Write a sequence for this structure.
């Protein structure tokens, strides 16, 4: 049996089958009634909305935290920053002197 | 407004009305496109109650996601994309026993195969038995393979169209098409093995 030929024949049979677009009686009315009753629960959609809201909240918190952190550092004045910077830079110099 | 004036409105006008809260404007869309949706669903579901469930699900999704329709392509294209994805979900949820082999063929189907073996030209593809056999073959395929064979080989859609309808990338469609054809050949080889060994 030539399977390739058989496959072509069967696919040709499927292509030649006419589309059956019969619509059951009063189908439109049933759809409208179902939509009006709000029966549909789009779970995936609901999850999507919830996750988006959570993501936006997290970004807002992140931005606020960052802004607060920057403002706090700036508000403490540059003096503290320059002292800390000096300490850090000369920390290694101090240890070299000890060795010598 | 009368029903006839609803029917005269374009899809865009009906959609705009629905989005403004006029739910009744959705009904003409349901009436217009349901035949196409039923024809599509009947390619994937066997029982009429399942077919109706699938089409109801498509309309329900279409209604609730109508605000995402951007209008840059015809509404029918957007709706058909939703239909294909819903049918695919249906196939995945209702995977039947795909080990059903060709040993339980009807007499007509058996005769058709015998005629094909004797003379391929003598076995008409228009015969009812041929259509039944191809349905059995499609039922044996895993959902991705079945969807690809239906869209690519039977409906003769392009890879790009299938990619747009399914949401699969073009390379993925090509890979799945290759695997689907191989899977079909395997299923057909099983016929030969089951019937003649």
């Amino acid at each position: 049996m030539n399977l390739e030929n058989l496959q072509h024949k069967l696919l040709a049979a499927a292509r030649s089958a006419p589309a059956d677009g019969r619509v059951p009686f009063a189908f439109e009315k049933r759809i409208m009634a179902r939509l009006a009753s709000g029966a549909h629960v789009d779970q995936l959609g609901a999850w999507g909305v919830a996750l988006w809201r959570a993501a936006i909240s997290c970004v807002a918190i992140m931005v606020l935290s960052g802004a607060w952190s920057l403002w706090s550092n700036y508000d403490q004045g540059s003096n503290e920053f320059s002292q800390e910077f000096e300490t850090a830079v000369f920390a290694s110099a101090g240890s070299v002197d000890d060795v010598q | 407004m009368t029903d006839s004036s609803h029917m005269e409105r374009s899809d865009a006008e009906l959609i705009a009305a629905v989005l403004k809260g006029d739910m009744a404007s959705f009904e003409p869309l349901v009436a217009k496109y349901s035949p196409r949706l039923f024809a599509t669903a009947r390619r994937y579901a066997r029982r009429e109650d399942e077919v109706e469930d699938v089409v109801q699900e498509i309309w329900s999704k279409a209604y609730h996601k109508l605000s995402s329709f951007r209008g840059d392509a015809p509404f029918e294209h957007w709706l058909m994309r939703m239909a294909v994805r819903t049918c695919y979900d249906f196939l995945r949820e209702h995977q039947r026993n795909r080990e059903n082999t060709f040993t339980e063929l009807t007499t007509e189907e058996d005769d058709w195969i015998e005629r094909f073996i004797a003379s391929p030209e003598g076995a008409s593809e228009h015969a009812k038995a041929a259509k039944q056999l191809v349905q059995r073959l499609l039922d044996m395929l895993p959902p991705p393979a079945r969807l690809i064979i239906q869209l690519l080989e039977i409906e003769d859609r392009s890879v790009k169209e299938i990619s747009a309808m399914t949401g699969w990338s073009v390379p993925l469609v090509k890979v799945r098409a290759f695997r689907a054809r191989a899977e079909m050949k395997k299923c057909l080889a099983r016929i030969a093995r089951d019937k003649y060994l």
